[in-house]
Amino acid sequence: MNNKYTIKTYQLKKELPNEPQAKSLRFVFVSDLHNHEFGPDNLLLLQEIERLNPDAVLVGGDTMVGKADSPMDVALDFITALADRFPVYYANGNHEYRLRIYPEQYKDMYQRFLEVIHREGVHHLVNRSIYTEFRGVPVAIHGFEADRKYYHRFKKADMPVSYLNDIFGRPDPDYYHILLAHNPDYIHTYLKWGADLTLSGHCHGGVMRLGEHYGLISPNMKLFYPYAHGLFYGENNNCMLVSAGLGEHTIPVRLFNPRELVVVSVDFSNKQN
């Protein structure tokens, strides 16, 4: 068992049209756990998240491994323990998506996952949005589940901004918008759609990291992948953040590419000030 991971912290700023009641919010982003354990029952990871004391935990998918008859206890126990402590907003990754669309292959795995999600009161966002507030700050969280054609290896399908508009509508400028979008391949679509912050994973840092952003290879087999990790800004000062994730599968190798737990702190101000 490898209990090592880093904490990667990002400090962001946002001007809102109305005076925010809280000057800052903190979110923890968990992505690509893939049944990995940090201490028995992930106790070390849970204790660290408790120490960070976020306003909410955002899960970007792939807590489990989407293989037939693969154990799910680690992922389900982690979700249960997390939801007992914090508000949890969960978007599917490609592994949850796989379980959902191929029940003949994966049997009841997705149903078992849903039973835990619903029982524990997790906000499960499958192409839907929640408009809420944290300490008086209006926040919209959108969970995007891309169609399987957007995960094809060796070929990248076109994703127009209208695809996101049809699912979520246009972002309301009175809110701080967070888009949970597992696959970073479509960074330009996400940024053009207009979320203030897009959170992605999927690449596990590219197996071997080459600097802050590049990875040796992406899941769709693209070499020297430019969006494997880090923070990327759009034209309107919005951004996409890609986590290297907390686990891996199939290729259990990481070179210059530590597992990471991501912390996002957002400082708010009023446009009129």
Give a concise summary.
The protein is of the alpha/beta class.
Describe this protein's structure.
This protein is 22% helix and 29% strand. Helix 6 crosses helix 7. The chain is globular, with a radius of gyration of 18 Å. The protein has 273 residues and is an alpha/beta fold.
Question: Which structural traits does this protein have?
Answer:
6-stranded mixed sheet; alpha/beta; 273 residues; Purple Acid Phosphatase, chain A, domain 2; 22% helix; globular
Helix/strand structural class: alpha/beta
Number of β-strand runs: 15
Name given to the CATH homologous superfamily:
Metallo-dependent phosphatases
- Spatial order of strands in the largest sheet: 1-15-2-3-4-5
| Secondary structure: helix percent | 10-25%
* Total number of helices: 7
Largest beta-sheet details: 6 strands, mixed
Cα-to-Cα separation, first versus last residue = 51 Å
Integer tally of domains: 1
Q: What's the architecture, going by CATH? A: 4-Layer Sandwich
SSE string, helix = H, strand = E?
EEHEHEHHHEEEHEHEEEEEEE
Uncertain regions: pLDDT < 50 for 5+ in a row? Answer: none
CATH topology: Purple Acid Phosphatase, chain A, domain 2
Can you tell me the overall shape?
globular
Q: Using only CA atoms, what is the Rg?
A: 18 Å
Strand content: 25-35%
Whole-number average pLDDT? 95
